[in-house]
Amino acid sequence: MKKNKKVLLVGNWKMNPVTLADARKRFAAIKKSAQAHKGFDVAICPPFPFIAPLAEMSGKGKIKVAVGAQDVSSFEEGLSKTGEVGAQMVASTGASYAIVGHSERRQLGDNGQTIALKVQQVLKTKMQPIVCIGEKERDTDGGYLEIIKAQIKEALSTVSRSQFHEVIVAYEPVWAIGRKDNVAITSYDLHQMVVYIKKCIREMWGETISSMTKILYGGSVTADNAEDIIVNGEVDGLLIGRASWDAKSFGEIFDVLGKGEKTNSKKALKKSFTKAKNNKKNAAKRK
Q1: From the centroid of its chain, how far is CA 178?
Q2: Per residue in 105-127, pLDDT tens?
């Protein structure tokens, strides 16, 4: 299977909004914003109660915005597990993706074994798991790299080679989440981490799987840093939190990434980004 070259933009709404009416309104507005940028793959992961009604809106109109879940249970359906929501239940409501191992779920008790079980539950459905990894802080001796390697190994330990084309990895350094300075991580540091993640996957599962695995970045993404993150960080897409909660801020990210480019591939974005930087340099020289 060929790797999808489109940039994937995933909005994680967390516990927002409060009502279904507001969720419908926001989702419709985001679909409208995405209309001008058909080269992107776009998905919104709302709270569980809103998945089914938004999935009904997903394919209506000229462009589809997929719907995903923010988590799934590690247990099979049919058990006496009050409050748990199974992956097959979620898939039956129309979800195409499921976030697994988000840092906020890890803080509530998810560990490597639990996440691996959840990944397997998702892979039994037609959904794609978005597997989150990320260090809490960065030390000076590179110990955080071993944390990332261990998270990858644990979360994907039960994934077969034939299933790997469905897996998406999302790198979200915990220390970068929620920052408002737009410099949560430099594109250089992010690129180095992408190379390292690919290296870990290559060592464990081989070059073919490493090259096909899609890597997203999440952590204080805004319209100000989105292009730099994708182009110079060389990721395949973004896992967007706060900036995805309303159509205006999400739309600004669409506009920044989609300006003047119909394909929206990483190669095309890089060409556009480099041209813009050169224009700025030339303008500065003329002053």
Answers
A1: 16
A2: 999 999 999 999 999 999 999 89
End-to-end CA gap in the chain: 51
Tokens of 62: 């000229």
Structure token pair of residue 170: 């999302």
Query: What is the pLDDT at residue 259?
Result: 73
CA atoms within 13 A on the CB side of 142: 5
Angstrom CA distances, 123 to 84, 91, 171, 213, stand at: 18, 11, 20, 15
To the query of whether residue 135 is one of the catalytic residues in this protein, the response is no
Catalytic residue among 135, 154, 172, 227: 172
Query: pTM of whole model > 0.70?
Result: yes
**Predicted pLDDT of residue 269:** 59
Is-catalytic flag, 165?
no
Q: Residues near 141 by Cβ (< 8 Å), separated by ≥ 6?
A: none
Q: Which residue among 37, 102, 135, 154 is the active-site one?
A: 102
